[in-house]
Amino acid sequence: MTVTQIGADASTVVEPATAVDRPRVPRAVPVAIVLAWAAIVALHLSGHGGSIDHDTLLGPGGNVEVTSLLVYAAAWITMITAMMLPSAVPLLGLFASVSRSQPRAGLVVAAFVSGYLAVWTVFGWLALGFDTAVHTAVEASPWLHERPQLVIAAVLALAGAFQFSSLKDRCLSTCRHPGAYLLSHYQRGAGAALRIGWGHGLFCLGCCWALMTVAFAAGMTDLRWMAGFTVLMTYEKVGRYGNAVARIAGFALIGLAVAIPSL
């Protein structure tokens, strides 16, 4: 794919075609991904991984202390860097390449990444709030309190069903064609980069929020769920058989939802 002209505001920015022919991801991005995974693995191997799970951070009655919120924020940023940033690499590489001639190109790319991660950060806080509400409801209901597996089954069933939704397909289609997205949204400057990253993050959220909810419910340092969903979400976006794999995953999640209550 060759993109030689990308609109910017009322003018047209002409970028070298070779810059997009060979998109190069800034070195800081793979370094950040590797460091995030290294931190998660190290915490898991130390035996303290469960200390940052949201269930542990929640106090009695669903109350959360300020210190716990800070720990959660750091843990969540690490988690989404490890799990979600890999799937954004194709667009990030294209964006970095076409932005190479901009003044302060490093700042522009950082703004793009910040916008992307900001979407998932907001989702993380919403997920924590929803999880707190669920815990409160379970504690208030003796019937649910005795059947916590039903909550897990409901989350799995929701994620499985969403794999077949039209919203998932539309958002996934946008994520699979980063060049087309960039062609229609590119503008120069850090502010524009922030908006582009935020916009792409919304499409990414639109196709992956249900799977991330399962990962969140399973535990923020459960390496099996994290690694599995990272591979799945990345392959859905960049793999040749992404559509088929997404549907296979949907059937698997629904199957687990049916099986868990009987275990």
Feature tags:
single chain; 263 residues; mainly alpha; two-stranded antiparallel sheet; 73% helix; 3% strand; globular; disordered N terminus
Overview of the molecule:
The chain has helices spanning 17-21, 28-45, 54-57, 66-83, 89-98, 105-140, 142-145, 149-162, 166-176, 178-185, 190-218, 223-238, 242-259; strands at 5-8, 11-14. It has 263 residues and is mostly helical. The protein has a two-stranded antiparallel sheet with strand order 1-2. It starts with a strand and ends with a helix.
Summarize the structure.
With 263 residues, this protein is mostly helical. 73% of the residues lie in helices and 3% in strands.
Task: Give the helices and strands, then pairings.
Layout: E1 5-8, E2 11-14, H1 17-21, H2 28-45, H3 54-57, H4 66-83, H5 89-98, H6 105-140, H7 142-145, H8 149-162, H9 166-176, H10 178-185, H11 190-218, H12 223-238, H13 242-259
Antiparallel strand pairs: 1-2
Helix pairs in contact: 2-4, 4-6, 6-11, 8-11, 8-13, 9-11, 11-12, 12-13
**Tally of separate helices:** 13
Beta-strand percentage range: under 5%
SSE pattern = EEHHHHHHHHHHHHH
Strand order of the largest sheet: 1-2
The general outline is: globular
What's the alpha carbon Rg, rounded to whole Å?
A: 20 Å
Number of strands: 2
Q: Spans with pLDDT under 50 lasting ≥5 residues?
A: 1-20
* Fraction in helix: over 70%
Major sheet: size, sense and barrel closure? 2 strands, antiparallel
Query: How far apart are the termini?
Result: 50 Å
Given helix and strand content, the structural type is mainly alpha
Rounded mean pLDDT is 83
Oligomeric form: single chain
